[in-house]
């Protein structure tokens, strides 16, 4: 590790600690198991802090964090093998400051059980429309592959909360808190819709109400709620 890289990690130790806090929240909510998931934070125009590969995110230490460049060079540490997703978001979404990737069980189950869907049925639940517009399903790509980033491309920058088919979910935001809220929203919405489907089937809001909710969403803006 160079002196410059070491000083970068030292200067941003509080961000490393915030990332660890979010990782522990995810673990407590059963959205991370073993060494699953990854979280990143954009330090500046060219440098990104990202969680390490092969380490349980609930038990990380600040010094475990890795540093990579926007062009994919490893500056220090052992960054997540799934960093291509993060890099694609930072390259295409200039407002992106943080990215959270986790494995929320119910959201993943929807992508396995209903491969015909292109997004969670937002027209059944007002909070999905108001909080993020829609939550689309990104086509499957092998974990750790270049295709993980490539498959995201057509969804960016429009969507900030996404389900990765047969794999996990991804949320990005202008703050780490926004990205965390996005991940929580994905799984909470997926669970409500799953329970409704199990209890008797999904019903949908009237078309005029959906249109009104989408107008409200436009007024709120792009941020995740």
Describe the structure.
- It is built from 8 helices and 8 strands.
- By secondary structure, it is an alpha+beta fold.
- Strands 4-3-2-1-5-8-7-6 form an 8-stranded mixed β-sheet, sandwiched between helices.
- Helix 5 packs parallel to helix 8.
- The model has no long low-confidence stretch (mean pLDDT 94).
Write the layout of secondary structure elements.
Elements: H1 3-11, H2 13-28, E1 38-42, E2 47-50, E3 66-69, E4 74-76, H3 83-92, E5 98-102, H4 105-113, H5 126-132, E6 137-138, H6 146-152, E7 161-164, E8 168-173, H7 176-199, H8 207-220
Parallel strand pairs: 6-7
Antiparallel strand pairs: 1-2, 1-5, 2-3, 3-4, 5-8, 7-8
Label this structure with key terms.
eight-stranded mixed β-sheet, 8 strands, 225 residues, alpha+beta, 43% helix
The percent of residues in helical segments reads 40-55%
Question: How far is the first residue's CA from the last residue's CA?
Answer: 38 Å
Mean pLDDT: 94
Point out poorly predicted stretches: none
What does the overall shape look like?
A: globular
Short description:
This protein is α+β, with helices and mostly antiparallel strands and 225 residues long.
């Amino acid at each position: 590790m160079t002196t410059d890289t070491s000083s970068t990690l030292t200067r941003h130790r509080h961000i490393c600690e915030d990332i660890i806090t979010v990782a522990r929240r995810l673990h407590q909510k059963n959205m991370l198991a073993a060494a699953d998931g990854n979280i990143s934070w954009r330090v500046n125009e060219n440098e990104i802090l990202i969680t390490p590969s092969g380490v349980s995110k609930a038990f990380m230490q600040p010094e475990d964090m890795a540093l990579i460049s926007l062009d994919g060079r490893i500056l220090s540490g052992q960054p997540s093998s799934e960093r291509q997703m993060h890099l694609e978001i930072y390259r295409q979404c200039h407002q992106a400051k943080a990215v959270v990737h986790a494995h929320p069980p119910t959201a993943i189950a929807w992508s396995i059980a209903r491969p015909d869907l292109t997004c969670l049925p937002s027209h059944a639940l007002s909070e999905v429309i108001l909080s993020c517009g829609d939550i689309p399903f990104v086509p499957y790509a092998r974990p750790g592959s270049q295709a993980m980033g490539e498959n995201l491309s057509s969804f960016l920058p429009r969507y900030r909360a996404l389900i990765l088919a047969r794999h996990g979910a991804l949320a990005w935001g202008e703050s780490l808190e926004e990205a965390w809220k996005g991940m929580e929203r994905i799984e909470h919405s997926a669970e409500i819709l799953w329970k409704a489907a199990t209890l008797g089937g999904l019903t949908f809001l009237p078309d005029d109400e959906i249109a009104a909710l989408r107008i409200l969403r436009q007024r709120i803006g792009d941020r995740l709620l």
